[in-house]
């Protein structure tokens, strides 16, 4: 098999990748893999053709298989020197000289003084504080919004309760009807003097505070 060095990366490889989209190491590995695949494919095709054309028996097939495997190893070993020459050419083509800067690295030519660095550091710190204050304000506003929503729900519930109480009051507390009953009772008592005391005791003696209040209002009027 062809000997291939594993990819190790590095500054040169990274710089070449930024410039060309791939580095010399990856390209050399790819070339060796293609050569190895081509050798294996050609020898395997030859082996299959010989087996079909010569109508070999099992023993001859085993011998042919071993011979083809040796042939693949031989071609791979003999390709080593040529591949090293190809590697050198790849390095010449893809290698970026140390005095060459990529467009995105042009900014590194300008050196930043300590004063400018400290100023930038202060600006970054100020921006970080502003972001933190903004996050805190957002949290406070969110909590306030939730509280307002809770209050609004409570008001809606109270409004519904008041509507129910109003309906109950209208259906059970009809003042005009109570006044009419009191007037009729008073007239009946006046027409039957000897029953006035007993009727008043029976009718009005055990009334509730609310009924007594209505009676007092009617008699006062």
TrEMBL record:
Entry annotated with the keyword Coiled coil: yes
The protein's location, in the record's own words, is: Chromosome, Centromere, Kinetochore
UniProt entry keywords in alphabetical sequence = Cell cycle, Cell division, Centromere, Chromosome, Coiled coil, Kinetochore, Mitosis
Record's Gene Ontology CC terms? MIS12/MIND type complex; nucleus
User: Example GO biological process term?
Assistant: kinetochore assembly
Q: Where does this chain mainly localize?
A: nucleus
Q: Where would one find coiled-coil regions in this protein? A: 110-161
Does this entry carry the keyword Cell division? Answer: yes
Q: What family does this belong to? A: Belongs to the mis12 family.
| Name the record gives this protein | Protein MIS12 homolog
In which organism is this protein found?
Plutella xylostella
């Amino acid at each position: 098999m062809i000997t291939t060095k594993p990819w190790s990366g590095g500054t040169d490889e990274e710089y070449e990748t930024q410039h060309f989209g791939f580095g010399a190491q990856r390209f050399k590995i790819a070339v060796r893999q293609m050569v190895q695949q081509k050798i294996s494919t050609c020898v395997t095709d030859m082996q299959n053709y010989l087996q079909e054309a010569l109508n070999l028996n099992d023993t001859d097939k085993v011998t042919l298989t071993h011979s083809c495997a040796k042939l693949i190893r031989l071609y791979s070993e003999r390709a080593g020197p040529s591949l090293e020459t190809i590697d050198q050419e790849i390095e010449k083509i893809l290698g970026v000289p140390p005095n060459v800067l990529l467009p995105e690295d042009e900014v590194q030519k300008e050196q930043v003084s300590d004063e400018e660095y400290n100023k930038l550091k202060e600006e970054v710190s100020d921006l970080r504080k502003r972001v933190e204050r903004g996050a805190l304000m957002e949290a406070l506003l969110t909590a306030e919004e939730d509280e307002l929503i809770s209050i609004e729900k409570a008001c809606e519930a109270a409004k519904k309760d008041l509507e129910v109480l109003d309906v109950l009051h209208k259906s059970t507390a009809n003042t005009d009807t109570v006044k009419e009953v009191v007037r009729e009772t008073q007239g009946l008592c006046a027409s039957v003097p000897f029953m006035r005391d007993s009727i008043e005791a029976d009718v009005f003696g055990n009334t509730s505070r609310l009924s007594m209040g209505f009676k007092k209002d009617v008699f006062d009027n």
